[in-house]
Protein: Thioredoxin domain-containing protein
Amino acid sequence: MKSVRVNKTENFDQEVAKAVETGKPVFVLFFGTETPETSESWCPDCVIADPLVRQAIIPIKDAILIEAPVGDRNEWKGNTTHTYRVRFGVPAIPTLFKWSAAGPGEKLVEEECADKEKLAKFVGN
Structure:
């Protein structure tokens, strides 16, 4: 599995397009940005889901995981105009999408991202 981090929303389209062009399976994970104090996401659900999402995707041949942090808590919580909410309908974090040339497809949201069975079915294991 290759992972690509998109730290700025304005770079998102370019990075995702590059990944999709490869023809390989592309997954996009939206999550809360890590805090400097802990180096973990401010979002407790994201902290739980992150290693499980990675474990599920690793066996997928040539998969690409796009890591898309949504910012700090104040940037995300209650902000209905956040770029990722508006453009891609990200309802909550963590959210994991399958992505193709047509854009975002199926998704898992919040606790679904930490459900091993749902993850395995979602990624095609």
Remarks:
- The beta strands are 2-5, 26-31, 64-69, 95-100, 103-109.
- The mean pLDDT is 95.
